[in-house]
Amino acid sequence: MILAMDIGNTNIxxxxxxxxxxEACWRLSTTQPRTADELGIVLHELFDYQHMxxxxxxxxxxxxxxxxxxxxVEQMLEKYFDIRPLVVGPGMRTGIDIxxxxxxxxxxxxxVNAVAAFEHYGGPCIVVDFGTATTFxxxxxxxxxxxGAIAPGIGISTEALFQRAAKLPRVELVRPxxxxxxxxxxxxxxxIVIGFAGQVDELVRRISAELGGRPTVVATGGLASLIAGExxxxxxxxELLTLKGLLILHxxxxxxxxxxx
Length: 261
Known about the structure:
Nucleotidyltransferase, domain 5, five-stranded mixed sheet, 10 strands, globular
């Protein structure tokens, strides 16, 4: 089995693959500070809950945008799984040409998403990832990573609204029945959900014009399904895109696979 971990600013998404089949997927909060022992115990409990043997894990691949947590995860995998993980970073074999001004600045999650999107959907392609930030990544017809856009994420934007506007309550993010809300909650849901959908459509349109042709647009991330339903530009919702990309990168770097010790 292969353990894939996507460490984001809000969540750690963990996937367990048997071959190319995803056997389990869990989402943990990215709580700092978190020790290697805490993470190891949580993962072992999740394996037990799924009636899976953690000792059957033979390799691990990690993408992280939280540098302070990366060594903790590496220590956890060595101590609790007896594995030295493959960590996505400069110098690894990705199979794509990164055409960014400063390639080392590109987040690991954006590269992983680009790899998975081109592999599964071809190019040209645009990936919209609804994470702590909402990122837009453009992939050329030949699979090259061109760059993209970064916008404030839905979660942090709405949290700022709740904190700064004393009379506005926290609301559940659900599809609004109409754009004209008849009460405060409905008005906020319309502004948040339809407003972010409009942001997505406009950025996708402009990126598409620069790419040329009609790129395939893939959405991923926790709120992808909600926002995609309100857009006119998103073609596919693939909530497992990052985990799929991690599996692909593991396969492309088998020569540098984690060493058992």
